[in-house]
Here is the input.
Amino acid sequence: MKSLWRNKSAIATVEFALVAPIALLILCLTLESARLQVAALLIQRSIYDLAYRAKTDQDREANFEALAAEVLERRNSGFFRVEEITIKVKSDPDMRYIRDGGTTGSGKGKDIVRLTFEAELGLFPNLVPKPLKVKKTFDYYYINELGA
Here is the structure.
């Protein structure tokens, strides 16, 4: 037993074996939280792009979901999957009713529109078979610029 304590490389090897998994876990969690923050920022930027394109588009009832998927795909950069995001669009001429009700769709001119993005972003999607999910909800309100 005395020879083990005298051998400093054996002690360093045991310490490394105890500390390395914890340090690696902390590093992975830090990188994953940074990826989720970047994904949230990219999704918010996608909402602004989608709102700008939708409120100035003449044919706003054409295919809103396809437009949203196109904007999300362009902003993706590999930080999230477009399939993880659901988009809800409600519109109403009166702000009092837009929060609880409203009609589905981007509405007519001068309507208030509520875009809701619900993202279920996976933690460690490539490492674990069934990734943990973090749910984030983004709401964005705008007024259609074109007249009725």
